[in-house]
Structure formats: structure tokens, C-alpha cells
Hints:
308 residues; alpha/beta; five-stranded parallel β-sheet; four-stranded parallel β-sheet; 12 helices; globular; binds phosphoric acid mono(formamide)ester; binds norvaline
Amino acid sequence: MQHFLDIHRTDPAELRAMIDAARRMKAARGGRPHGAPDDLQPLAGRMVALIFEKPSTRTRVSFDVGIRQMGGETMVLSGREMQLGHGETIADTARVLSRYVDAIMIRTFEEATLEEMAEFATVPVINGLTNRTHPCQIMADVMTYEEHRGPITGRKVVWSGDGNNVCASWLHAAGQFGFDFTFTGPPTLDPEAEWIAFARARGVRVAVERDPFRAVEDADLVVTDTWFSMHDPESARERRHNQLRPYQVNEALMARAKPDALFMHCLPAHRNDEVTSAVMDGPHSVVWDEAENRLHAQKAILRWCLGV
Ligand code: CP
Ligand code: NVA
């Protein structure tokens, strides 16, 4: 059994194998209804706990549906309603859950919670987003890019906006899959230096460019995310909006990227803040495929974790 905690902590060959498996499993479904089971039922007889300390639409539904397609069962738990939210330690929770379920997916605030869960669980633990990273999302994003445009290796990905948890996992992917990454945003919202250093140490070009129009020149993919993440303090909302407004992804910005550049957003989007509706609903956008591919990518991650 193996945990899936972060892209930078997972072997690149294994990441590649997971993306390829996700594409094969998607193809094998042959477009049948999402509620229909897969021919292969590798999770038959298995139970997966899905723990949420923050809201979710995609992560919750895509894990739940994907596990059921593979013959498994799920239990969706809210951190607040568990004893976890009332003083029981994460370590004790991990020990107990490991006696009941076959895998644990957790969406939490502090990375330390995920770490403690992984340290004390004797079943695989999957990171469903922390304040610092969102690896399942970027596995789906890499899959989506490659579905549309072929290998992501050697391409130029530009992130415009807040250097947040989703941006962090993109930097990890840049290092592991071998593509160039440009961040454009205000200096106060730069990605963590540690993640930039990780990608650079793996030999890819990472640029920080304050001018969004210069940043997107030659971009194969433009990505953004909310200006205000679930862990950000309400008091910062207005300041962030003011700082990030120049980094909105709109038609003028997309026009400066390569003509066949794609646009991605992990969603939920705040239309006409970080991205205009014209871009979200326009010809560059692959956001709905991106959302669907959470399902397929996570199924491959689960099979890798469980070795099934
Ligand atoms: N992108 C993503 O993780 O969405 P949810 O917050 O809806 O799970
Ligand atoms: N950066 C966002 C991503 C949501 C999927 C957040 O953490 O709220």
C-alpha cells in the first residue's frame, strides 16, 4: 500500500503510469453512463472514507462516483461531525479508521494533519487538498492537457493569479513531468520559494514575470484559480481582489498566448473575477474535461495506492 500525498513526493515514472492508466480506464468505459460500473471491479469489497474539513463539489462527487464505478463503497465524513473536530487526535483517528476502511482521502487545512494521518494510518491516505497543495487536481490537469495536445513535457504553462495550493502542485508537476512554468502575479502572492526551487532543481525553467501580457507569450496553457482560497482570512478578501485584478484571464490576455493555447481552472470559478465568462466558455477552455478527469485520474491514483 502507498500513500498519495503530493506530486513532488511521488516517483515521476509512477506519476506517468497513473496518467496513462487513467486514460486507459476512461477509454475502456467507452462513454457509458457515469453511474454504470466498470468491467473491471478492482475495488470490490473495499470501503473508502472520504473526510472533508472544507467544502467540496468535485472532489467529493468524483471520488465517490469513481470508487463506485470500480465496485467499492464510500463513506463521506465531515471533519466537524467527527470526534476529530472535538479533540480526538489525528493519530488516534487514523489508527481507528484503519481498522474499518481500506483507504482514506482527506481534505484538510494544515498539511500537518495530512502528515499525521499518513504516519499513523495503516491504509493508504490520499491528499484531497490542503492549504499548501492539491495534487489530485493537477494529475487530472496533466491528463487533460495531454488528451487535447499530446505530451506536456517541454511545454510552457503560465499561472496567472495567486501563487496558492493549486499553483504549488503545478510547480511540482513541472519538475516531475518536465515542462516550463511561468508565474505571473503580485509579489506578495508569489508561490512558495521551496516549490520554485524544487522545479528548478529538476532542470525545468521557472520564471516569475510581473507583467501578465509578457508572461503569457508563447504559452501552451494558461491556468488560474480563485483569488480567495478556503483557508484565506476574510479580512484579506478586498486587498487580494485589488492586487489580483490585473491578472484576470480575459480574451485580451489569451490573445497573447499561442493561438492553440488551452485554458484551465480547477473550479469553482468566480466568473468575471479571476476569469471572464468569455474565456471560461470560449474556444481555449477545457474546464469541463478537466473536471471530468478528476474522476478518471483519481481512480488510477486509488488503484496505485491499493496495488489493485
Ligand atoms: N477543484 C476542486 O477541488 O473542487 P472542489 O472544491 O469542488 O472539490
Ligand atoms: N485554491 C482553492 C482551490 C479550491 C479547489 C482553495 O484552496 O480554496
